[in-house]
Structures are given as C-alpha cells and as structure tokens.
Amino acid sequence: MGIFIIAELGINHNGNMTIAKQLIDLAVSAGCDAVKFQKRTVEKIYTKEFLDLPRESPWGHTQRAQKEGLEFDGDGYIEINHYCEKAGIEWFASAWDMESQLFLRRFDLRFNKIASAMLTNLELLDMVALEQKHTFISTGMSSMDEITKAVNIFRRKNCPFELMHCVSTYPMDAKDANLNCIKTLRRGYVCPVGYSGHESGLAVSCAAAALGITSLERHITLDRAMYGSDQAASVSPEGLRQLVGAVRKIETAMGDGEKRITETERKIAKKLRSHL
C-alpha cells in the first residue's frame, strides 16, 4: 500500500455545507484517500468567559458565535456521511472532547484521529483506543515522554495506530520542519510514521514522502484568502493536485534500493562503451 493521503478539511469549510462538498469533490478529483474533519463540543472545549469575549466574524460579534458557526450538527454530519459514500471516499474526524468522540461513534468510520492538541488528554486517548480502530496520532507540541504515554495507551488496548510527525505552527516555517524526526519516531517506537504538515508550499511534504512516511495529511482550501485561521497553511486546489501527483511519482521513484542495471541502461552502455 502506498502513502495514505488525507485531505484535512478541518474547519476550512467555515460551517458551510456547499463549501464542504466542494472540498470533498476536490479531494476525490485530486486522488486523495480520505477527507478529515474536526469535531468539537464548544461548551466542553472553551470556558464561558472565553466564549463571551468579543470577536468579529461572519457569524456575529463573540467568540461563541464564531466557534459555533464553524461546527456542523448531527444532520450536517449525516449529510457529509452520505456525500462521501456517494463520492467513494473515506471520511473521519479528530474529536476534541469525549462527547464529540461519542458523537462520531454513530458513523461506521474506519479511522480515528488524535489531534496534536489532544495528545495529552489521556482520558480521551483511552476512550479512542478502546474502539480499536486504526488511529492517526499527531505529535505536534509534544515531548517524547508525552508521546510515549500516548503510545502505551494504544498498545495496552491493542489498538492499531501510527504516529504523525507534526509541527503545530500555522503556517510552519520550513526551517522548523525537522523532518529527520520521522526517522526518530520510527526508530523509537517501531511503528508506522506519517507526516501532518502545516507549511506553505509542497516541497517539505514531498521531502517527507521520500523519507518513507506511511501517511500524509495536509489542510486543503478552495482559496487561501478565504476567512479562517487555517487557510494560509492550506493547499490550494491546483497545489493539491500537484502534491498528490508528486507523492505518487516519488513512491515509484524510490524503488527497492537494490543496485541493478536496467534494460535501457544496457542498450546505452553497449553504445557508450563500444570503444572499450
């Protein structure tokens, strides 16, 4: 199996079902393997004091209005589920609280995701691991000790998982990518390791693909100038098509590492060495 490419819709749909469907269509047309959302119970994640703070957004004048405006309700996710089934693409979501994880259990999803921000929420990790679904675990903002605690939970529950190297800045500067950490995680935990990128451009993700990652997750957008905190760190439609094409070409180009002379080379060698 090749690199599992995840198109992270996150909150780039801005709570708009039409935009969400356009992003799903984009992921399908580009050749992605899955789309991913983020699910939050606003009252569980944020304090009342924070939600009451002023914030100008398309949905109103408070933090609450903005946060609630970005969330789909139960009917919305039923529509998303049907749309993805019809489009022939997997979907799943990262739950940011236990109530959201319970909500996601309504759907017959193959995968779970632990967001970097939730890696230290051991109660949530334990709940997810009990489901024994293949889980992508992002490691941004986390120490090796914190990652070890998360890994131990999933191993105790016999839950299949893979770590995802991640740097949680939006957008991430290439100098902070530290892609060799992919090797460190693979060596340290003897498990599959993917990459969840927040950089501008495609080069860093392509380099990660060449390091043998098992999964690649990038935020996608219809337009990087759209409203939203993640848009600037997202891949545009043309960029996504280029990225998927490049990753598939890199997979083919890596080969098996065995030195051999190709049949094409033999013909050239016969010509170029004819004087010897």
Could you walk me through the main structural features you see in this protein, from its secondary elements to its overall organization?
The protein is an alpha/beta fold. It has a single domain, classed as Aldolase class I (TIM Barrel, Alpha-Beta Barrel), CATH 3.20.20. The protein has helices at residues 17-30, 42-45, 48-51, 63-69, 74-87, 98-104, 122-130, 144-156, 181-189, 203-210, 237-254, 263-272, and strands at 4-10, 34-39, 54-57, 60-62, 90-95, 111-114, 134-138, 161-166, 193-197, 215-219. The protein is globular, with a radius of gyration of 21 Å. The model has no long low-confidence stretch (mean pLDDT 97).
Pick out its properties.
globular, TIM Barrel, 12 helices, 276 residues, eight-stranded parallel β-sheet, single chain, alpha/beta
Uncertain parts: none
Euclidean distance between termini CA atoms: 44 Å
Helix content: 40-55%
Derived from helix and strand composition plus strand pairing, the structural class reads: alpha/beta
> Per CATH, what is the topology?
TIM Barrel
The profile of the biggest β sheet is: 8 strands, parallel
* Spatial extent as radius of gyration: 21 Å
Count up the helices: 12
Identify the CATH class: Alpha Beta
Residues in β-strands, percent:
15-25%
Overall pLDDT level: 97
The CATH superfamily label reads Aldolase class I
> What's the overall geometry?
globular
List how many beta strands DSSP finds: 10
Q: How would you write the strand order of the largest sheet? A: 5-2-1-10-9-8-7-6
State the domain count.
1
